[in-house]
Amino acid sequence: MTHTTPVSPVELVETTPAQPAPAAVDVPLRWLDDVAPDLTVGGVTCGVPFRPGAVRDAASLAVVDAWGRAVPAQTWPLATWPDGSVKWSGVALGAATPPSASYRVVAAPSVELVETKDVVSTGSNDGVVTVVERDDEVVVDTGACVVVVGRSGPDVVRSVRVGDVEVARSGRLMSSRQDRPEPDHRSRRESVGVVRDVVVEQAGPVRAVVRVSGLHRDVDRAYEDGATGWLPFTLRLVLAAGAPTFRLVHSFVWDGDPERDFLSSLGLRFDVPLRAAPFDRHVRLAGADGGLVREAVQGVTGLRRDPGAEVRAAQVEGRPTPSLDRWDASVSGRLRWVPTWEAWSLRQPTAHGFTVHKRTAPDRPWIDVAQGTRSDGLGYLGDTGGGLAVGLTGFWQSHPTGIDVERASSDVGSLTMWLWSPEAAPMDLRFYHDGLGQDTYDDQLDALEITYEDYEPGFGDAHGIGRTHELTVTAFAATPDAPALARLAAGTAVRPQLVPTPEALHDARVLGDWDLVDRGTPERAALEDRLATMLDFYVGQVDQRSWYGFWNFGDVMHAYDPDRHVWRYDVGGYAWDNSELSPDLWLWTSFLRTGRADVFRLAERMTRHTGDVDVYHAGPWQGLGSRHNVQHWGCSAKQVRISTPAYRRPHYFLTGDEHTRDLMLELRDSDRNFLGLDPTRKVRPDAATYEPRRDALAVGLGTDWSALAATWLADWETTGNERSRDRLVGTMTDIGALRHGFFTGEALYDLDTGRFATDRDRVTVSHLSAVFGLVEICSELVSLVDAGLVDAPGFADAWSQYCRLYLATPAEQEAELGVAPSGTNLEQAHSRLAAYAARRLGDDGLADVAWRAYFRGGEFMGEEAFHPVPVLPPETLVPIDEARTLSTNDAAQCSLATIQNLALVGHRLPPR
């Protein structure tokens, strides 16, 4: 359906960034790195927020560039407000035109609108992406390439064409496993990913998304009906109008037995037809910092005899060489003596080094080609008539990885991107110790006192965790020149991203209480310096400490050991952080207010990691996350406080990423976990006799309910699910009806009705209740109540009471609650609660309470944490920066308290 309006597009063209047209909606977008990229690899997608009621329909949105010209765009709702208006909209741009320095999303009925289902394209109809669904395949045409996706069998991508030429076929997911952890190629069982379901999630006209799901089967049973499999996967193909490149977002769930299933390889392979002579076939492998290995299958440079400068230049550049009759006869007549090379292999076994080898045949030795540091992770195989490049984002960071070119001297070669290199030691996911005799809860709690590890037999199981990789696939009509491939490799390694400006995000009033960076007074500047120091330190620690690797990339460590000058990577619960005390929220909130590219990318990597690796997606603990441990899955505390969508929502809203949406929505029934696994089973006084009842499940009003509330809110705003809406609003109302509100600590939840019993009369407080997203989610929910968008009587008052009394004197607490609760520590972290109450009630006395608690300091960090010092070998293995008293708990909560206190009660910041 096509819509036109009486306002001419010329009026938009005349609108410049300096003089925006009057409009109810005008959201500026900037490139994350503040510079328009050379190209957008497969287009670009971002999310844009709006206030309630501002946008009733995504069809009313248009995108204009820095000169005010309408550009082709696709918009769709990512989330809606309770009144049905658009809360966040996805915005996708194609790749047909060079990127503009900036863009604006406007309400512009002047631009022609073309609707496709619930997705809208604005601007020109030229350069669209089309999707054709057939019984056995889906065909997507971007205008620059045609991709055929199979609905069954092992060929996920059946064909990639440029014009009439097929440049790749038989795109398959490959894997292998063995039954022992020691490398043993002879015992490996080869598997291939088999398609079970294909869904077209978006059908253009600017962006198309095809979701493929399946599992891996042994190669010899790939076509066997009813054959069992493992490693269930989801592979999304994201294609943009005008783009020869499409993105692949590959996620899998590890569902093996850690004692007998050792993954020995995992990769994506394409067959590449080769039609030209061997000397016109080309291999390219990305090295570090834009470097490339550039070689021909049959090289004619460096020979004893010279074929001619024109021939040599053409081969090195990847162009067709002149006809043989134009070569020097001393070479053309002896080509049969020049070896052809059958295979190339790049391996990145660590974050700090790669090697490249090649060979002439499978029964011949590998010859050293090159070595380097950090490969950009792109491989190309093709000839003068077409070729294919495959790249992997986070290639060296996600080691052990690799790239293989094989059969390059035959009619059909292959290009494989290894997500787990077949030369690496098999993946070993067994628990790292034997339990040390911790067979009873008493022993486990006693051991917790020394290693901070919450161990329980059978709970350190990786079955059900996941991992996501992002790849690019690019079709070429001929071998590209080196600069083009270098740009492609750079755009894969660091994906260009559009984002709203911090001012636009702040104006939309989304995602909690925060304000823009303000250094207007010495006191504010000092706190901004603290915030920047913490961010700089953690960004730097990732590389200094090599927090890389297949299962580790994206996480940070929990606590520091100043005696060894290392983070406590080997000490029980002090190692990998696993979202403890909300570093995810710290990083995302910091990005919202600063717009820093390095912070965005650290937060995005953390979202990918914590959402996939630290959460169970299958098995008995599906929907739960694991507390911090030496291994990400090692702790026996499996709780919704780690899996909470509160940590995923910013990434989804800012990027429109469908996989992150999946991670949130798969949790919509996570309340059922309270029936199967009691989070407080080890410390419950009645642990010996307690049995969970469907109508009276013990749910904490802090870490538990905040995660459930975030889950229900994410589901409601994203899908409109009324069940989630009712459970969210119902439990909010029930908390408001409890005599002591949030101070009740724990309420009894009816799984079938989704409501709390409101007759519980007790007072209890946990210092952890508010530090896993409760502050942020309650702020959003109260704002919905205040705006009249949610009717939950008593909820706002209950939250205000909790914020007002948490840091109150024991006498003040006892006067109102009847008892002064114990356990109110983490004062600096909770200073933001007092700040919230001060702002809501207009109480400067409470504001002063907040700042006094804040400046008393964190749990351990002190001022020393804000002044990292260098430590050099031989005291350390490599030069590092050290903040001796710092823990990630303090870094996250101190930073969140700083941000929120400045936003809420910055006017009462005391002079220093």
For the structure shown, list the relevant keywords.
39 strands; PcRGLX/YetA-like; alpha+beta; PcRGLX/YetA_2nd; 20-stranded antiparallel beta sheet; six-stranded antiparallel beta sheet
Describe this structure in words.
The structure is a single chain. This protein has 912 residues and is an alpha+beta fold. Among the domains are: 2-122, no CATH class; 130-256, no CATH class; 281-493, no CATH class; 692-824, no CATH class. The chain is built from 21 helices and 39 strands. The protein has a 20-stranded antiparallel β-sheet that branches. Mean pLDDT is 93; it is low at 1-23 and 110-125.
- Radius of gyration, in Å, reads 29 Å
C-alpha termini separation:
63 Å
Percent of residues in helices comes to 25-40%
The low-confidence runs, each spanning 5 or more residues with pLDDT under 50, are: 1-23, 110-125
The proportion of residues in beta strands is 25-35%
Helix count, DSSP H or I runs of 4 or more residues: 21
Shape from CA axes?
A: globular
What is the structural class?
alpha+beta
> Quaternary state, please?
single chain
Mean pLDDT: 93
The biggest beta sheet is recorded as:
20 strands, antiparallel
Total number of strands: 39
Organism: Krasilnikoviella flava
Region (Disordered): 171-191
Domain PcRGLX/YetA-like central beta-sandwich: 129-489
Domain PcRGLX/YetA-like C-terminal alpha/alpha toroid: 496-909
Strand and helix layout:
Elements: E1 2-3, H1 9-13, E2 26-31, E3 44-49, E4 61-65, E5 73-80, E6 86-93, E7 102-107, E8 113-116, E9 119-122, E10 130-133, E11 137-141, E12 146-150, E13 157-162, E14 165-178, E15 189-203, E16 207-218, E17 230-240, E18 245-253, E19 262-273, E20 281-286, E21 292-296, H2 309-317, H3 329-332, E22 343-350, E23 353-359, E24 367-372, E25 378-383, E26 386-392, E27 401-406, E28 412-420, H4 441-451, E29 466-476, H5 482-493, E30 498-500, H6 502-508, H7 522-544, E31 560-561, E32 566-567, H8 583-594, H9 597-612, E33 625-626, E34 638-639, H10 640-643, H11 649-655, H12 658-665, H13 673-676, E35 697-700, H14 703-719, H15 722-737, E36 746-750, E37 755-756, H16 774-786, H17 795-805, H18 810-817, H19 827-841, H20 844-855, E38 869-871, E39 880-882, H21 888-905
Antiparallel strand pairs: 1-8, 2-7, 2-30, 3-6, 4-7, 5-6, 5-9, 8-9, 10-11, 11-12, 12-13, 13-14, 14-15, 14-19, 15-16, 16-17, 17-18, 18-29, 19-28, 20-21, 20-25, 22-23, 22-27, 23-24, 25-26, 26-29, 27-28, 31-32, 33-34, 35-36, 36-37, 38-39
